[in-house]
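User: Could you check the structure of this?
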Amino acid sequence: MKKYKTNALYAKELRQSVRSIKFPITVGLYCFIIAVIGLFTLVAISASGYPIYNAYTIKQDFIVFYSILFGLEFGLALFAVPALTGGTISGERDHGTLEMLLATALGTKRIILGKLLSAISKLMFYVFSSLPVLALIFIFGGAGIGDLGKYILLIILMSLYIGSFGILMSTVLRKTSTAMAVSYIWVMFITLGTIFIAFISNVFSATNNDSLHLIFLLNPVVTMFSLLDTQIGLPDIIGNYINFQNNTSFVMEYWFVLSLAVQMVITIINIFVAAYLLNPFRKRANQ
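Assistant: Sure, the predicted structure tokens are below.
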């Protein structure tokens, strides 16, 4: 049986990150901020008051608590990943170490994967460290272990999705600042630009309110809404226009799985394209 070999670049990048004193300090500060926001959210919700405060209203409070913290961590991953991956390859180029890295026996695919996974792993430290705060919802039955597992899966896959484009831009563009800027522009496009395209499309061909344009399969925010809808339900301001559950449309009913599948296909394509462009022998092979 062939022994599995850990990606050496991934291990090196991760060791360098956790050895710095800044890392545990920032993780601790992040957990403190999440805990304070969560506590403030609960106090604010409780202060609104109910005529009768019982187990049902307490459960509703913790559902709101879960959705707010879910959204905060999702937003953190959405906007932090381009910064973590935008300078992975271009940074090596700036420091003059890219040629030495390419001269190793790793190969371009393992280099790309090592850089991408190390960047995502750094982010996952923050996500997993905040789980005890999110786990408070289990006490009141607002969500289960399965819901928390889907939440973590969504964060990981969305980070890979966004990060694969960031590392592709870091491979294509020579400057780190430019690669990050283009990555953020792409994030804005898939989150806000898809809404504009769908709006223009609906102007010429009206659709039902409970249906979504297929371009939203690229939008990780809509994927997040589909997961929240199956777990705790969407608020009326959104649920009146989007109906994921009990929908006659196959795409709408299985939106969460289908959107993740589409985004993972794009992730794989980005990784392979980045590895191909990073290969220093590709021009010679094409001649």
